[in-house]
Each structure stands twice: as C-alpha cells, then as structure tokens.
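Contributing new records

If you add data, match the layout below exactly. Sequence lines come first and carry their own label; structure lines follow with theirs. Keep one chain per record. Anything else will be rejected by the validation script.
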Amino acid sequence: MTDPIQPPDLSTEQDFDGEAFAPLYTTTVTVTGGTAAHGRASGRARSDDGILDLDLRLPAELGGDGRGTNPEQLFAAGFAACFHGALSLLARQAALDPGAISVEATVAFARDPQDGGYVLHVDLVVTWPGAAPDVATQLLQRADALCPYARMARHGTPTTITLAT
C-alpha cells in the first residue's frame, strides 16, 4: 500500500508582497522533429526530466493521422488540471471534500475572425456532486481568479521569445 499523496503547502491565506516574480516550479519541454510543412505541430515533445515524452501529431479532423496527441489536448489537460487544483484548494479551505470534483476542459482551435490568424476557445465544465449550487458557484468564481491558466486566458501571460545562438 502506498502513502496518500499530500497536497503541497499552498494557501490563498498567505499574502505575497515581493517585488518580483518568484517561481515556485519551473519546467521545460522541447519539441523537435516533425513533418508538418503547414505550420501545425508534429514531432516529439520531451520534458527536461524525461517524464513527459510523447509524439505530437495533427488531429484527424485537420487531416492528420491522429496517432499522437496535439497542442490543444495538452493545453486542455493543463487547464483542467490547474483549475481542478485551484478549486480543490478552495474547497479544502472551506472544509468541503474536493474528492468528487471533476473538471472537463474543451479546447477549440479556430480561425480568428478579427485577423484571419488562429485562436483558441476554452469551455470548462465542473461537476461537483453533492455541493450546494450557491457555495459551488462562489468557489468557482474564486478558483477562476486563482487558477493561473484562467488568469492567462483572461489577461495574457508574460512571454519572452529568444533565438538561441
């Protein structure tokens, strides 16, 4: 039998008053190879610790073979996991059991009608059996403000792009 996973020591009650961005965790994923001449991701994605190591393929709906994951699936997984974590933290702080919470993220890839480029649209559906709707709604709103993926979707995220020499 394995020991239960202990949640990290994170809290919404601890104020941070630092003057600079202070990473709590950093990871790097490198994508290499691929055959997509049309600009969609293909190839291999591998994290710096080797735990994530998978093929990227164009989805069948976009003309690919669909035999690997794609960036939208990875983004949906990350967004759902992050929102689930934020909501679970808030539920525990409210003395509620987060065990039944599930978060489904649907990510749609489409043309941007504004400029003809590309855009993503995210729909999150939270299932929380047994939770009082008024309490759950309030915690969903707080989770939306707490979850870094939701904040990124609303406000953008600082990004640097550098050509390695």
